[in-house]
Amino acid sequence: MLNYKGNLWVRKNYVLGNRTQYPLFLGTVAGTLLLYLYCDFVLLQKYCEIPNLSKVIVTFQILSIYSMFRVNMTEPGVQMQTISEDKYFDGKLCEKCRAIKIDRCYHCKFCDHCVNDFEAHCFLMATCIGRRNIKYLLGLVTFTGIALYLLLLILIYKLFVSDCKKELTFIILNIVSLVLTLVHLNPFIYTTWRNASQNWTKKEMNRAKFNGSPYYIYKNYKQFFTRFYDSQLYANFMQY
Ligand SMILES: [Zn+2]
Ligand SMILES: [Zn+2]
Description:
Layout: E1 2-5, E2 8-11, H1 22-47, H2 51-73, E3 105-108, E4 113-116, E5 120-122, E6 127-129, H3 134-161, H4 168-198, H5 214-226, H6 231-239
Antiparallel strand pairs: 1-2, 3-4, 5-6
One zinc ion binds near residues 108, 111 and 121.
């Protein structure tokens, strides 16, 4: 709900993440945890002969779960600048929440607010993905990908080198399910890294032309990873 305060419309009881979708988020975390426990206590215990490699995989799994919480709990970049009805303003306002519309600011119908650099509303993470939490999403898909790829490599190595013929079906089944999971994950890893290198949001990525200049890519990555400290947005958020 919106609340009139001075000449500003501000959001009352703003909560991080979408409260009604929170069970979905917890379900995703629990499901991923179960998958990782299976990987660690069944697959790694059985097939990983290099103890340090298991530690590396577990580290990436922990980073992946940590990123999930960061995505959900980081304020996505909600557009807080609003204007009252009696004040003259000739810019664009959002019809639904009366936030000032700037470029790349879109209204999320599930959370009922406008978000800067809006990507999409993510149901599994129960939050909008926008300017300030997109980098944690990049971390999430990357860490999950690395943890699963390393495990896949161990299993493929076992398939071709091991002499345990009895467990062949078990290894093959696990490889197939890992490959299927990664097939779903790969497009996310690819598009998130590519969009960050070009400073595109999801809505722009089909229209814009790719610029491969290393300096341009470096500049965009630098901006992408320091966005969290965007002082104006942070000040807006802290004000309420
Ligand atoms: Zn809006
Ligand atoms: Zn949303």
